[in-house]
Amino acid sequence: MVIKANTLRVESLANSGIHQIPKEYIRTQEELTTITDIFTDENNQQCPQIPTIDLNDISSSDPKTREKCSFELRKAATEWGVMHLVNHGISSDLINRVKAAGESFFDQPVEEKEKYSNDIDSGNMQGYGSKLANNACGQLEWEDYFFHLVFPEEKRDLTIWPSKPDDYIPATTEYARQLRALVTKILAALSVGLGLEEGRLEKEVGGMEELLLQLKINYYPRCPQPELALGVEAHTDVSALTFILHNMVPGLQLFYNGQWVTAKCVPDSIIMQIGDTIEILSNGRYKSILHRGLVNKEKVRMSWAVFCEPPKEKIILKPLPETVSEEEPPLFPPRTFHQHMEYKLFKKNKEIVDLK
C-alpha cells in the first residue's frame, strides 16, 4: 500500500497499519543521533530536573513571603526558561474538564474533525489541521492539532469551536479566563525581577485588551518508528509565555546545558515556558528555551498549549531601556511581533533576512 504523506492526517496514517513511516517524516541524520526512548528518559534520575515552582504564595499579603516565591520563579526563568507550576490556583476539576473535552473531540472519527479543518493557504489558521512542511528539507511532524484563539473573549470566533462535546466551550472559556489572571501574576513577578513596576511587562506585551491567548491542542498518534520521527521539531516559542497541560504521557524535551532533558510528568502541574517576546524585552535575562516533542509507539500523547502573544504590528519588540547599559548592550534589533515570526521562519530556511 502506497500512502502519500500529505493526503492523510497523521492519525489516519498511524491507524492505517503501516510498519514504516513515509520518508517525509524521517528526520535528518543529525537529529536521529539524539532521538531516544522517551519512557527510558523519563525514568533516568541522573539527568537535570526541570524546576518545580510552588505558586501558593505568589499573591501573599506578606511582602517577604511573596518575594520569596517570586524569586524562585525568576530564578527558574533566568536559568532554565521553563518550569512546572504547582498550586497555581486553577482547580484540578477545571483542568480535567478541559482535557476531557479535547480528548472527546479527538476521539471522534477523522471525518467529523474535518468539518473544522483550517485552510492555511487562504490564511485561516484556526481549526483542525496537520503541520505542513515549512522547513528547507520538507520534513513533516508526527502531529495533528486543533488551534484557535481563546482570549480576549470578544475576539473569539465561536463558529469554529467544536460543538461536541457539550462542555468544550464552557470548560475552555473558563480555563482561558483563569489562565489570563495567572498571566498577570507571572508577568508582575518577572517585571519586578527586572527592576520595573509590576505592571510594566504586561503593558509591553499588549495588556488585557491586546495580548492574545491562542490554544493549540496537539495530538501525537502512536508511531511505528518513533526513533525516526519527531512530534514537534526543535524550536523556541515566539510567544511572551506558553502554558502547557498534557495527558501525563512524556514527550516534551528541553535543550539545557548542551543536552536534551526530558520533562517529567508532575501531577496537577502546568508547564510554563518563557517565549522569545519576554527574552527580547528582558534583553536575554529570561531565557526562551529550545524544545521539541518526541513520540512513541505505545501511547497517544496529547498536550494543550496556550501561547500568550502580543499584537502582530502594534508593538515594537526590543530590549527595554532599563535592561540595557554599556556593559549589557541590546542583544536584539527592534522588530514587530510579525517581523520576528517571519525572521524565525526565514532563518530556519537558511535565508538571509535583514529586518532591522
From TrEMBL:
Domain Fe2OG dioxygenase: 211-310
UniProt GO BP: flavonoid biosynthetic process; pigment biosynthetic process
UniProt keywords, alphabetically: Dioxygenase, Flavonoid biosynthesis, Iron, Metal-binding, Oxidoreductase, Vitamin C
Pfam family, one: DIOX_N
InterPro entries assigned to the protein according to its UniProt record, in alphabetical order: DIOX_N, IPNS-like_FE2OG_OXY, IPNS-like_sf, Oxoglu/Fe-dep_dioxygenase_dom, Plant_2OG-oxidoreductases
Cofactor: L-ascorbate
UniProt similarity note: Belongs to the iron/ascorbate-dependent oxidoreductase family.
Protein name per UniProt: Fe2OG dioxygenase domain-containing protein
